[in-house]
Amino acid sequence: MGKKIKKDDKSPPSDVFEPVQVDAKEAKTGVLLLKSEEEDVVAKAALSLYKFADKSEENKATLLELSAAEELLKLISHIDPIVKRNSMMALGTMAAHPNVRRYLRQTEGATSTIVNLLSPEESIVVHEFASLCLCAMSQEYTSKAEIIKSGGIEHLVRLLGVSDPDVIKNSIETLTLLLQDYSATSLIREAGGLPALLELLKSEYPVIQHFSLVAIERVSAEATSRAELRELEAPSLLVNLVGIPDLSDLHVFAISALSVLLIDTETATKMLENNALRRLLAFIEDTNAPEDESGGKESGKGKKGGKASDGRSSKKGKKKDKDRADSALPPSATQPVIPTLPHVKEHAARAIARSAQSDADIRRILHEAQVEKLFITLLTNEVWSVQVAGAQGLSAISESVISRQSAGEFGAIEILCKLLANEKNEVREASATALSRLTLSVPANCSIVAKHGIDNLIKLLLDDSSTETTLCSACVTMTNLSKDEKSRSDMTSHGAIGALIKRLKSPSCSVQNRVAHCLAALCTDFDAREKFKEEDGFESLQQLLYSNDDDVRRSVSWAVSVLAQDDECANTFGGLGTVDTLQDMLESKTRKNAFTQAALDGLLRRHLPAKWALNNRLDFNDTIIDGFYDVGKKAKNSRKLCPPLSFFLREPVLAENKPIILINAVPAKPPTPPPVVEETPEKGSSKGRKKESRSSKGKQKAQKEKEEEQEEPSPEVRSIVSSSDPEIPGDDRLCDYLRHVQERINPLPTTKDQVTALARYVADCMGGATDNVDNIPWELSINTLRQNLQSNIIPIGLIQKGIFHHRALLFKVLADRLGIKTSLHRADYNRAWNEVALVEDENGKYPPVLFMVDLITLPGRLMRYDSLEARDYISLPSALKSN
Description:
It comes from Dimorphilus gyrociliatus. By secondary structure, the chain is mainly alpha-helical. 59% of the residues lie in helices and 4% in strands.
């Protein structure tokens, strides 16, 4: 039998409260216990609230409604370390809820209190949950500024060197969020954070490596930070990381960071010198990489899975250091190459393309590294997104002429031409864009496209699924090819003109601009203009002159000026009112452009009646030919500038209609007698007709006598009157004038003699010399001709009484046929004159001088155009001026 133990019947003192075990089942109770004065009760309550908040977002919101955040915020400064720790755990967990973050942001001093808990004196658990709380708060811009102001960056940078991975993860993630504020960049650098960020690339935890790469990319936005990272061999470290296949999920972020570092020419130069750039390209091309010559191979080697080798224990399942070290090195020349993932290739190409766009020196360095080969390799990849990235890279690097030439030599043009027929719109668009840039000022590349890509380019124009960028790029490429005559001919024969005219109706102003530009380049050839006429693109092109886009109007004006080289095209544009439209553009300060005047001059050069009516001037090179007509000076408010001659042929002879002077040196057609219609008399009606015939015989005889008394028109007039068809009338007398000047004036020895003789002859044909043109009854003569002709069109040879503008026009006509260069000018009140360029000295040592030809007062007199007598010749009489 065992020994009995004597019970202790001693009761506790009367002033001591015995412990009570409270089984709290409501969160409200736990919050109330936070107000207890007993530290053990508060610590347990805070721990319970942490567990409750960690279960769901709803629980966090519930605790906020119960004012738990307010109590916990007070307790995180408690003197008891357990209370402080548990309270921080609960508050840090609750901060994941946006309403809790709002409360902390609005509570004065809350941010600085939490930041102070990152001090070295605090426990590692407090650091973990304080940094977690700051990480949540850093999602708000206002909180970022408050954390930076409270000195949180220095504490967070220091925590990057601790051993606990959770603290490191929360700290680096917080810094990554704070770096969204540019002011944090310099603070992290000044706090010594850049070496710490690079050290974290060797972490055994991919999440830490990920945030380190993001932080490096963001901190590299500052030039000083990029310089320091360059000195720390950051580019080589990042390239080594890309070369580790086991870290493929981090490759994209490493390349993004590299693309920012490559903005600096110094960085690109250093990467080229130590082979880092070539190793990066080799990793992406899936070829053996050259050795690292940076001198920091050991520091630049990544570890499998991103794990570090400092021997510390891990909460997340750590592997042995030997296994990590064996698999950490990038593939060497003796190891099989593991292909880089497609999305990594894609991001790498785009990152390098961004760098190439930043600076010409960067493009030069990339060219020395033969980056063109990388992009060409990506074009042959099976993944369409990689093909797009390769084409975009070629577009970026083609800012350099030497890169464009190299791309063509390496075979990029043929591949891009094939990709124009790819089923993916994105691939076609990127390929067309690359071709548009690679063919700029590189004839060799243009020749390759002309050989392999014309059909596909035209198909892109005809394809309704082509995007705006695709259409624009195809047009630019064709414009680049059009510098070669054979290429222009090939594009025309393959249907380029019809495809371009179709796209003139595109709603996109960019497409309209590029299409019109391409048409202007192609239509310099005769065959292209003929195709344009066959496709009838006049109206579509003319309508774009009304566009509100400046570039569209400029390109269309250029196209019109090119097409106006063809007489038929010029006449067609004239019939559509293009001359009026261009004149309106010239009068507008906002709508005119550098090609408006060229287009107008081109049309008027082929449509001299319109030019004469509009400009009141015909230049020395403007030759008047048969079919020219003078409609008079254009009124300022007139909207119909110069209708075709057929319009005036059918116009009734009314007093308000102006006479139209016609130049047509062809013989007049003989009068056509009216057809004779024989009527067969009906039976039983002969007697009645005989009576009617006898009764009207007297009237017919009287009418005949009356007509014989009137003045008989000239043969020329009879020919026009008798013509029932609205054909252009001939001019026998003008033909006589031309024969006379060819026989009598053309043989004269000097141009001056010819001009003088021609002036006298013109004056004789138009009524002779006179001191006062008012004595010439020219208006009566013109009106009489209109009535006799029953037409407003008057051949110039029929005018026997002419003044300034009649004589000057006839002088210009005859001088052009003789080959005498003369200009024709018109002013108000029917004033007109001619100017000729003559050499004054016999030896011809001095340039020609302009002379005005007198056709009125002293026919044949030559007056220097700037002389007083020339000014008097074209000035109005004083009486008319006073009126």
